Amino acid sequence: MKGFAIKTLINAAAIWVAAAIVTGITLTGDDWTSKTLTVVLVALIFGVVNWLIKPVVKLFSLPLFVLTLGLITFVINALMLWLTSWASGKLELDFHVQGFVPALLGALIISLVSWGLSLALGDD
Questions:
Q1: Which residue stretches of the chain are H helix?
Q2: In which domain, by residue range, is 88 found?
Q3: What's the total number of domains in the chain?
């Protein structure tokens, strides 16, 4: 359970950084507390999307993994972020990704930030 909470907080920090850097990703809220709650809830949605849907998409796109030598992973990560934005909109959270290019850049930033924080914090 502790590992799940740490991964969620790492994803939340990575999403926050992506929203701050990428122009097409917006994270709005009235104050700092509402933004923090929103980004944690978005990180939970992002984790569920990556846990449930991403393996199925990877399985069906296996020939593309071979053909592109794994570069399709960036596209799949962008689609998972875009799906997270759609689900957040349905849950009336203030997180939006406006287009595929911001989703691609955001997914790249989220991957890098979460990788760096995971290295810094370790598995414990």
A1: 2-21, 32-52, 54-60, 62-68, 72-90, 100-121
A2: 2-120
A3: 1
| ∠ CA 107-55-47, rounded to 5° | 50
pLDDT in tens, 23-74: 999 998 778 888 999 999 999 999 999 999 999 999 999 999 999 998 999 9
Report the predicted TM-score, pTM, of the whole model to 2 decimal places: 0.90
Decide: 10 and 18 in contact? Cβ < 8 Å. Answer: no
Q: How many CB atoms lie within 10 A of CB 100?
A: 14
| Closest listed residue to residue 53, CA positions, set 29, 87, 101 | 87
Q: Cα dist. 54→35, 59, 77 in Å? A: 26, 9, 8
CB 11 within 8 A of CB 62: no
Report residue 28 CA to chain centroid gap: 16
Supply 21's token pair: 């850097």
In this structure, is the dihedral angle defined by the CA atoms of residues 103, 107, 108 and 112, taken in order, positive or negative? positive
